[in-house]
């Protein structure tokens, strides 16, 4: 049974990669993952950002693509997300947290507050773990797929 699930996951990720290859700069994000070790991964965490005032840029690590700016505040483990287009789609940071070389947690912080507004999600990650973030958009009215920039960044 485990081999069947692993094969199904591998095939679905390969299909997603092929779809992403056809759309330069974007990829479809899957909401399930299995670490290489076979250990259990917490369920995909979906949080909706609350409005906030962006702290000083000196406290943040930020990256931007045309539609979304994402920032990570290490002190407090906060994601900050800004919608830069106002096109009806929500701005999202999709994140992955690795511990001891394996995916430990994963999720997304969704900003549906509107163009130019900053939203934040308060998380709690282990110190010395690896944290990656990907800027995405999510048009919930047309479909349930995240459109993410294939370029992600390491934040921790």
Oligomer: single chain
Poorly predicted runs are: 1-36
State which percent range the strand residues make up.
Answer: 35-45%
N→C terminal distance: 35 Å
Number of strands: 12
Q: Major sheet: size, sense and barrel closure?
A: 7 strands, mixed
Rounded average pLDDT: 79
Shape: globular
The secondary-structure class comes to mainly beta
What's the helix-strand series?
HEEEEEEEEEEEE
The share of residues in helices is 10-25%
Gyration radius (Cα, Å) is: 16 Å
Give the number of helices: 1
How does this structure look, described?
By secondary structure, the chain is mainly beta. The protein has 1 helix and 12 strands, in the order αββββββββββββ. It has one helix spanning 2-22, and strands spanning 27-28, 45-48, 50-51, 61-64, 68-73, 78-83, 90-99, 102-111, 118-122, 130-138, 147-148, 153-154. Strands 1, 2, 7, 8, 10, 11 and 12 form a 7-stranded mixed sheet that branches. The protein has a 5-stranded antiparallel sheet with strand order 3-9-6-5-4, with no helix packed on it. The radius of gyration is 16 Å and the shape is globular. The model is unreliable at 1-36 (pLDDT under 50).
